[in-house]
Structure formats: structure tokens, C-alpha cells
Design goal:
- By secondary structure, this protein is an alpha/beta fold.
- It folds into 2 domains: 280 residues, Type I PLP-dependent aspartate aminotransferase-like (Major domain) (Aspartate Aminotransferase, domain 2, 3-Layer(aba) Sandwich); 134 residues, Aspartate Aminotransferase, domain 1, CATH 3.90.1150.
- The chain is 39% helix and 13% strand.
- It has a 7-stranded mixed sheet, with helices on both faces. A 5-stranded mixed sheet has the order 8-9-12-11-10.
- Strand 4, helix 7 and strand 5 form a beta-alpha-beta unit.
- Helix 1 runs antiparallel to helix 3, helix 3 packs parallel to helix 11 and helix 12 packs parallel to helix 16.
- The chain is globular.
- The termini are far apart.
- The model has no long low-confidence stretch (mean pLDDT 95).
- The chain binds pyridoxal-5'-phosphate (PLP).
- Pyridoxal-5'-phosphate binds next to helix 4 and helix 5.
């Protein structure tokens, strides 16, 4: 499938029906799978043979969709998770445990910030947050001898800062650790982080990939290029025997292409059980089929909305990476030349209060804790998703108290602009 272009792979990668088999990806709604002998099933438990035995670990519908996302990102192996949160947790925890440290961009999704700075910190994993536009020296100073990974978002939610992937990859590799990039906002349609040196990509598939507010989900993709064995002392989980799997050494048995995802499946899915429902994987697959069409429309509509807001006298500021005046312009030209995402952030004059009034006045755009939906939605992060953060943390995450996050859908842009117009007129 890798010979086909992205739009073709969105339709065909991951599942090729045989003679007389269903044309559409079947939903294998079964927790378990039958085997003729106990020995045959035992080989699966030992990771000696490939096959399905229990949907918590693997399921054919989910695996087909993971294979499709793997092809879209150009990776070597991938897995689905039950949410984007689970994807980011697994992606980091697979290589960083108690006593370890991770360097992380400060401009990240609020849920991820909380996962890292509160919950994983309680598990003994320490994070140092650096501004995505930090200098090389500042980035360098964030590393410690026990650093195991670097993490960032291609386009940060909701700050919309663009990550200099090559800069972060270079720093990570100089310290013998991989770069993990959450590529939720651009999707592989607009950016493929592996091309720029990222080693692992994560997704909240809940967003554009599903695209219709149908199913919460996540994905992890491995480029298969990071050499765990060259830094064996840092990654004992991949380079020394796993006693919970009869002494298998993942890097040895599954190679660089398969070690990371096999370990995450065999250990983390087994123990934490954040597996997607087959039905949700099916819905995600339907969304993926039209991803390139929707991304183009999201981006075109968002640019139109951003330009409209920029020219409105009741609007204090607009941030959209696709605008000519964006501070991220150079990074956008390099990493996102064909489009960024459908999310625009802006502030109305009058701050927090005016923001609430504006939101209440919207008719077509719905107030929802969501982004990247086919239907336009709008949110005030400081009072919702980011409400745990104090003002300093908000500032570090690039979220001002008056920030309104507008996730532009694929409606007719004239109707969208009319809705913004009437809500602004009422201020
Ligand atoms: C939404 C989101 C997440 C969390 O994903 P869920 O599917 O909601 O668990 C992680 N990263 C980014 C960039 C997101 O937008």
C-alpha cells in the first residue's frame, strides 16, 4: 500500500478483502477467538505466533485501522488506543518510568499537560517544560542524564504554536532519546513528522481523523528508525528480557520496526486495558476515508474565518497559523505548506466577559468541549479545558484568559461568517 498516495491509502490501506469477502471493513464484535488446540493458543501468549485471542490486546478491526494510520504516517507499526489520552500516556510510559525524565514543549493540550505534570509525576516521571520557540541553549539545558524522551505537538492545542520538529528531533537524538510528536491537529494530510526526524507519532483520532464527533480514540505510530539498542542502557524495557513474557527481548525479537509497538501492546494494553471498541475503530475508519477532503475544507474555511475576524473592529487579536502575519509563518512554510488545521483562536475586545457574551450569541456554532468536528464548535479554554491552570501556567501554554477557540467546520463559509457577524454585532 505504501506505493499509493495518501488519499488512496485513506480509502484502501489496512484492509484488502479476499475473494467474496466484505468490501467494507467488517466489525469483529467479539471479545475472544477460538482455537483448535491449547498449544496453538499458547504460542500466541508466548508471542511465538501471530493471531488474535482477546480483544483487550488486539482485534482485527482495530488492527486494520491501525495499519491504515501507519501507512498514512509512513511508519513501521501502529496501534489504536481507546483515547488520545491513552495514546500519549502509553507512548511515554512505554519508555519512561519511575525515576525517569522527559523534556516537553510547554505548548500542549491541557489534558496532556495534566497527565504529565500531575498524574505521571505522581508515578515518578519528571517533566521539564520548554517553550516551543526556546533557543538551542535553553533546549539543551532541559536534558538530564535520566531523560528518556522529548515530546511536543506539531500544532499545539489550543495555543496553535507550530513545533520546529527538526530542532527538537536534533536535540533528542543528540541525547540518545526519541522525539514523540502528537500530530492530532495537522493530521498526516498536512504534516508527516517522520519526514522531519520524529520517531513516534501519536493522535487523538477523536479529532479530524474521526471528524464527525462519533468516537473517542487514539493511535500510536512508530517510525521504526530509532535504535533502542544503540542506547541500550537508557531503554532496558526494550533491550533486556521481559520476565512477564518468558524472557523475550523486544528489540531482538521484533527488531527496530516492531519492538516499541509490540511492547506497548503486550505490556501496557495487557495491564491497563485502554483498548478501543471494534465499533469505534470501524467509525474511525469511515472518517479516515474522507480525511483529505475534509482537511482541505476545514483549512479553507478557517483561513476565511481568520481573515474575517482579523478585519473586524470588535476583535482584539487573531491567531491562525495559516495567516500571512502568523508569528509561526516560517515554520508553517517549512512543515505545513499545504495547510495547517481548522482551529482559529482569537480574543474579542472586552476580555473574559465579552468572550462569554459572544459565545452565548452564536447560533450555528455550538459551544462544545471538542475540536476538529465537521460541525463548527467553539470553546473558552480558560474556563473549561484549562481551568486547572494558574495564570502563569496558562501563559506558558500560550492560552490567554480571553482566548476563544473556534474549531471551524465544513459548513458553507458564508453561513459561518454570518453567524460570527451577528454574534459580534451584539457586543
Ligand atoms: C484532544 C487531544 C488529546 C486527547 O485526546 P482524547 O481523544 O480526547 O483523549 C491529545 N492531544 C491533542 C492535541 C488533542 O487535541
Amino acid at each position: 500500500m505504501s506505493d499509493y498516495r495518501l488519499s488512496t491509502n485513506c480509502l484502501h490501506a489496512g484492509y484488502v478483502p479476499g475473494n467474496g469477502e466484505p468490501r467494507n471493513l467488517p466489525i469483529v464484535q467479539s471479545t475472544t477467538f477460538r482455537y483448535a488446540t491449547g498449544e496453538a493458543m499458547g504460542a500466541l501468549f508466548d508471542l511465538e505466533a501471530e493471531g488474535y485471542f482477546y480483544t483487550r490486546l488486539q482485534n482485527p478491526t482495530s488492527d486494520a485501522v491501525a495499519a491504515k494510520i501507519c501507512a498514512l504516517e509512513g511508519g513501521s507499526a501502529a496501534m489504536l488506543t481507546s483515547s488520545g489520552q491513552a495514546a500519549n500516556f502509553f507512548a511515554v510510559f512505554n519508555i519512561a518510568g519511575c525515576g525517569d525524565h522527559v523534556v516537553c514543549s510547554s505548548a500542549i493540550y491541557g489534558g496532556t499537560f495534566n497527565l504529565f505534570s500531575v498524574t505521571m509525576k505522581r508515578m515518578g516521571v519528571d517533566f521539564t517544560f520548554v517553550s516551543p520557540d526556546c533557543s538551542d541553549a535553553e533546549l539543551e539545558a532541559a536534558f538530564r542524564p535520566n531523560t528518556k524522551a522529548v515530546f511536543g505537538e506539531t500544532i499545539a492545542n489550543p495555543a496553535l504554536a507550530v513545533l520546529d520538529i527538526e530542532k527538537f528531533a536534533r536535540a533528542a537524538h543528540a541525547h540518545g532519546v526519541p522525539l514523540i510528536v502528537d500530530n492530532t491537529f495537522p493530521t498526516p494530510v498536512n504534516c508527516r513528522p517522520f519526514q522531519w526526524g520524529a520517531d513516534i507519532v501519536t493522535h487523538s483520532t477523536t479529532k479530524y481523523m474521526d471528524g464527525h464527533a462519533n468516537a473517542v480514540g487514539g493511535a500510536i505510530v512508530d517510525a521504526g528508525k530509532f535504535d533502542w539498542t544503540a542506547h541500550a542502557d537508557k531503554f532496558p524495557g526494550l533491550t533486556t528480557p521481559d520476565e512477564s513474557y518468558h524472557g523475550i527481548t523486544y528489540a531482538e525479537k521484533f527488531g527496530l520496526a516492531g519492538a516499541y509497538i509490540t511492547k506497548a501492546t503486550a505490556q501496557l494494553m495487557r495491564d491497563f486495558g485502554a483498548s478501543p471498541a471494534p465499533m469505534n475503530a470501524y467509525l474511525l475508519n469511515v472518517g479516515l476515508e474522507t480525511l483529505p477532503l475534509r482537511m482541505a475544507r476545514h483549512c479553507a474555511n478557517a483561513l476565511e474565518a481568520a481573515r474575517y475576524l482579523e478585519g473586524h473592529d470588535k476583535v482584539a487579536w487573531v491567531n491562525y497559523p495559516g495567516l500571512a502575519g502568523s508569528p509561526c509563518r516560517a515554520l508553517v512554510e517549512k512543515y505545513l505548506p499545504h495547510g495547517t488545521c481548522g482551529v482559529v483562536s482569537f480574543g474579542v475586545k472586552g476580555g473574559r466577559e465579552a468572550a462569554s457574551k459572544f459565545m452565548a450569541g452564536l447560533k450555528l456554532c455550538s459551544i462544545a468541549t471538542h475540536v476538529a468536528d465537521a460541525k463548527t464548535c467553539v470553546l473558552h479554554p480558560a474556563s473549561t479545558t484549562h481551568r486547572q491552570m494558574n495564570d502563569a501556567e496558562l501563559a506558558a501554554a500560550g492560552v490567554s484568559p480571553d482566548l476563544i477557540r473556534l474549531s471551524v467546520g465544513i459548513e458553507d463559509p458564508a453561513d459561518l461568517l454570518a453567524d460570527l457577524e451577528q454574534a459580534l454585532a451584539a457586543l
